[in-house]
Amino acid sequence: MTPEPFLARWTPLFGVQRAKNAGGDRFVAVAPGWWVSNLGGMVVTGIVAKRSGRPSLRLLFAIAAGLHVGEAAYAYVAARRAGLTRSAPKWALQTLALGFPSLSALNALIRDT
């Protein structure tokens, strides 16, 4: 018997949920654990950066926020190019909040279609 992989225990929290089909235009909501870790991490980083006044923390937050904005723009364009026109705003907003987990789900959906 092989031991259970570490991340397999966390699949319900960090996995990907089923695709919601809106007339062929699909959206995949990522699992709740990503919302807690990624969005929560961004919020906490922003609060700590603001309250501490340390330039390095403010720079870290600015870079992270900029990356999320760039990923969201990419997700919107990629979803529209893949024919997911109705769900493209959802993909962009989810990617803005979560970053790579949402982008990974979008890329997997595009690749599998």
In short:
This protein is mainly alpha-helical and 113 residues long. 67% of the residues lie in helices and 12% in strands.
How many helices? The count is 5
Mean pLDDT: 84
Low-confidence stretches: 1-11
Number of strands: 2
Order of strands, main sheet, comes to 1-2
| String of helices and strands | HEEHHHH
Over the alpha carbons, how many angstroms does the gyration radius reach? 16 Å
Largest sheet: 2 strands, antiparallel
Give the class from helix and strand content and strand pairing: mainly alpha
The portion of residues assigned to helices is 55-70%
Report strand %: 5-15%
Query: Any idea what the shape is?
Result: elongated
Cα distance spanning the termini? 35 Å
Oligomer: single chain
Can you characterise this structure?
Strand 1 (16-22) and strand 2 (25-30) form a beta hairpin. This protein has a two-stranded antiparallel ribbon. Helix 2 packs antiparallel against helix 3, helix 3 (55-81) packs antiparallel against helix 4 (88-98) and helix 4 (88-98) packs antiparallel against helix 5. Mean pLDDT is 84; it is low at 1-11. It has 113 residues and is mainly α. It has helices at 11-14, 32-52, 55-81, 88-98, 100-112; strands at residues 16-22, 25-30. It is built from 5 helices and 2 strands.
